[in-house]
Amino acid sequence: MRRFLPVVAAIVLAACSRPAPTTTSTATTETPKLVFEKYTLPNGLDVILSEDHRLPMVAVNLWYHVGPANEGPGRTGFAHLFEHMMFQGSKHVEGDSHFRLLEAAGASDYNGTTDFDRTNYFETLPANQLELALWLESDRMGYLLDVLDQANLSNQQDVVRNERRQNMENVPYGIVEEAEFHELFPGQHPYHGYVMGSHRDIQAAKLDEVRNFFKTYYTPNNASLAIVGDLDKATTRTLVEKYFGPLRRGPAVPKIAVTTPPITQERRAVVADKVELDKVYLGWLTPAFYQPGDADADLAGHVLGGGKSSRLYKKLVYEQQIAQDVTAAQNSLMLGSVFTITATAKAGHKAAELEQAIDAELAKFQAEGPTPQELERARNSMDTNIIGGLEALGGFGGVADTLNRYNHYVGTPDYLDKDLARYRAATAETVKAFAASKLTRNARVVVYGVPGPRKLDADVPAPPPAKKAAGATAMEPANADAAWRKDPPKPGPATTLQVPTPTSFTLANGLTVIVSERPTLPVVSMAVVVRTGSDANPTDRSGLANFTVAMLDEGTSNRNALTLADDVAQLGTELDLSSSMDQSNLQLRVLKRHVAAGLDLLADVTLHPSFPQEEIDRQRSRRLTQLVQQREDPATQATTAMQAALYGSSHPYGYTELGKEESIKATGRGDMTAFWQRNFVPGNAALVVAGAITAAELRPMAEKAFGGWGGGAPSATALPSPQTTSSKLVLVDIPGAPQTEIRVASIGAPRATPDYPQLQVMDMVLGGLFSSRVNLNLRERHGWTYGAYATFEYRKSAGPFFVAAGVRQDATGAAVAETLKEITRMANEPISADELALGRDALARSLPGLFETSLGAIDAIGRLYVYGLGLDYYSRLPQQLNAVTTAAVQDAARRYLLPGRFIVVAAGDKAKIAPQLQKLGLGAAEMRDADGNLKRPVK
User: Fold this and answer.
1) DSSP annotation string for 463-521
2) What is the pTM of this model?
3) Among 9, 182, 390, 458, which one is least packed by beta carbons within 10 Å?
4) Domains present along the chain, CATH in parentheses
5) Cα(36)–Cα(435) distance, rounded to whole angstroms?
6) How do strand 119-126 and strand 267-273 relate by DSSP bridges?
7) How far is CA 265 from CA 190, 261, 441, 802, in A?
8) How open is the CA angle 902-908-913, to the nearest 5 degrees?
């Protein structure tokens, strides 16, 4: 009989009730109690359980205490490469089936991530599928070595190198940010490689090294398993014992013997990149995660560069108007944290000018410290971020990840109160002392990112693909086998799919109010959703909707722009303003004690914008710089060219939300005022609220804040019908690009189409899932891309359908050919019964995940309002999806995936990719620039 260590706490997630604070108090009234159970198996595996019955879901979150911090010299990127290897199959789980099984089970959040100090794997899925997650995670912990071979390693080396190209080398400033870490940490330090590592080191990894890495670090005694959600603890303990208990304990894990040397003299570097704007990075080594000074660094970062109320934003972006953006933040790490200030110059300004302005503000902060108001705002923000992060069960944040993070860094999951308390214990003097002692000139690195030819390391050729080994490998199995492991476990007893249905009421002025009650955590998200967006832009005013919405928090009849920014920050939140083709959206998330103040602020910017001319001029300058930034990003260039080629320059769908340069320059205060008066009326809007509030509590607050909103009905928007497309090739030339961004696109379907269920199932099978046809083909089978996907962008009128991927330059033509082949096969051949079930189940069973967080809930509910789907829509949708047949999917594919109507867009090095593409017979070829405008004919 196995012995467990003592239980340290009961299982509950509850809110404590305390006296309400004054407006200046830093103590929160709503600290939730993360109560859990932790025990350790005899093989050393830490297990953390927490019951949470708000949704019929469960999160499984597994941390291995290994990351780049454990890498040896010459093997940068090894921990991240190994994370990829963990998805390549194990003895009882076939290579491509890990994601497919989770998707079929209805998982809504699943992946793995590598950070400097740890690697984690997670899945959030229906509660009756818990055993499936434990089977998958235990099998790769215990039986990966049984099937690990050179073919798997070679494939993932290609994938990881494509990830490096896509996320570091083919994006603006990616190599500049990496250079900052090269300057901060010496070459032999494990943080020098910046998680991703170099092409040389990734390609140099040997199979024996991968196996030894697994045996050393991927053992039960070097891992922590957190399970959170709608679970029964006795049953869960039994399952954990069944799947993980028999796994052998590994050897003692080598201690990290690394000392991070201090910086004693300023280090400087200039890195040329394919950009148009200068950018400056200032970096310092600061106290490690959860150590004294770490919380002071977080607070200093917020005061200096934590949003529109921060000192650097007000000085560089707002007052001097020399920067497009500026941020300051602490990146907390185990071997020494990194505090970074970054700023992007506006056109006509240089990095040196930004550095000088930053230094002046930093010197003032070091001398004076934060004001009481600044410190209070920073603390409120930390409260909201930490408590709000607990809304999700697991994944990148949430309860499971939080419990594991505390366990990893401080040795116990029981740290939430202490985490919050360290920010409340900080004072203006301690924050000032941190800045004065740590953020000094002689202890920093300064890296400039400047326009110029991008210099990448010499290419490291990959060997020919290795053949898949036949039968078992010669490696001795790590664990004894058991016959019961060979088949996936059956799900637990099925439960009725529970998707929250919100309630609604209407104010006297016609404003719809929709409420989704979520009593577990003291967090409330709210949004004003207006049923008009960029679809209402006049032909000569592209970007008007987006410009107007962006101006709403730049001044009202009650507050100027800076006062608004300070008031938002005082609530510990950010006001998110956005527009899409079909809607305008204003949203924020607050702790419950700030709900009334949040509603008042939201109402002020919605009802009383003043559109000050001086703020319009500032915004216009920022938007013109945003256009420059769009031109720097290959993925945006490809999408911009796709939209223009599909819809033409006069259709609202034919350009980005930002609009065109001439329109931005021409749009004036009268245009914005008219757009707001015409469309921002209560009969065209909904107040959507989700969180710890009831409809009865909300009604008087909503009446007080929004009851005085007047106005008539908006004029209906009549969009021109999009023209059907003809096959053609569209090239966007980006000389020297290491990858090609491809889009294979046609005009899709409107959101109101009765074909929606079958189109969604078809999309899942073709490109909507990790285990979809295009991703398995381009990524897993060929190693040409980090990821490929397909999607319908549903709008009031027919939006685009497209397949997208960033692919290896020399594989551009082959990747396009394979993509077209998969599209054609979808129309010509019926999908299999397994694929049908996968597509239907992935959609239906994951629906509760839409409501996992309050921000997710208001987004999902907002779509119901915009498209008139009814508040019970998500409860009805599973039945519609389950009625989809193979014949219905093929019929939809034949009607929407017409071979002669697909355009191919390729944004990359024309000299290298055009010859590959022109061999494919893709139709007439045309060139477009970074703004989507037609250029000279292709030669």
Assistant:
1) PPPPPPPPS--SSPPSS---GGGGSPPPP-S---------EEEE-TTS-EEEEEE--SS
2) 0.93
3) 458
4) 38-250 (3.30.830.10), 267-388+405-451 (3.30.830.10), 503-706 (3.30.830.10), 728-937 (3.30.830.10)
5) 37
6) unpaired
7) 21, 12, 8, 51
8) 75
